[in-house]
């Protein structure tokens, strides 16, 4: 991190040295979901990086574009109108503050509850009918992709029950969240050789996160050796993250990937992310089918409800799983 005499606009936002363009992720696994080799390729990418790019996923470009343009329209509203959709917690519009424990980023966002395959009936935000329709269409589609990916993960891991993982997000009471992030350009830092932190480094607590962004890069992931690399944007693809809970279910075989977003000084970034979490009472422990003879769980026993509570009491960059290690 760099310390600069910052401008008032970015006061309280951590600054990062601009990524070296040479640090683009050249070894990115790209998985074709329509190919017979997808299960093995997905499992391999989750073991090596906890992250991969997904193509040929079958979600029409229109579905993605419609939501993107409705989101852009929403984030262009006057601040007072957007604030009427707040606060962010438990669900709603938020700006710069992330979580409830003092984290800040150069972004604004909508955090939304998902109920089976659409926005939760109780979720009044956003109030615009077109935006809600675009959200519901997109959420239904991305959730299907998440289910297909989790089925492929189970197959790639050699588990006979195809729904061993996906069943956790399709079960009644599963805890699914949807988030739309907008990172405005951070003009104040143009030419200064550093960038504002859009979304600070963290791992996602859930099982799986499926992200789609516009054509503005900014997402970075940490490789297993600790090196940060930038993920080139691709508006036609999804990017899939392994979350903490999936790392535990696989007893550490799949890696929960550390990631962050760096704001661009010239262009806005819009991302939409589906987070697949299980029901609050779901026990999070290594699947017995994955434990070799005599192999013990690396983790203490806990439920998703217990883990979520601990996660929401933690700071963004904390190693949340550490307290659950045996
Ligand atoms: C600082 C925080 C924000 C977060 C809750 C937390 O206390 C730690 C985990 C964060 C995270 C990361 C992934 C998702 O964006 C998110 C919605 C989630 O489930 O966990 C956020 C939380 C948030 O923004 O509220
Ligand atoms: O907005 C992005 O590109 C990623 C944000 C993220 O990691 C998150 O919301 O958990
Ligand atoms: Fe994340």
Number of domains: 1
* Helix and strand run: EEHEHHEEEHHEEEEEEHEEEEH
Q: Beta-sheet strand percentage? A: 25-35%
CATH-defined fold name: Jelly Rolls
Instruction: Quickly count the helices.
Output: 7
Annotation, overall tally of beta strands: 16
Distinct ligands:
the ligand C=C1C[C@]23C[C@@]1(O)CC[C@H]2[C@@]12CC[C@H](O)[C@@](C)(C(=O)O1)[C@H]2[C@@H]3C(=O)O, 2-oxoglutaric acid, fe (ii) ion
Supply the CATH architecture: Sandwich
Instruction: Tell me about the largest β-sheet.
Output: 9 strands, mixed
What Rg do the Cα atoms give? 19 Å
Q: How much is the average pLDDT?
A: 94
The secondary-structure class comes to alpha+beta
Euclidean distance between termini CA atoms: 32 Å
- Helical fraction: 10-25%
Query: What is the CATH class name?
Result: Mainly Beta
Any low-confidence stretches, pLDDT <50, length ≥5? 1-5
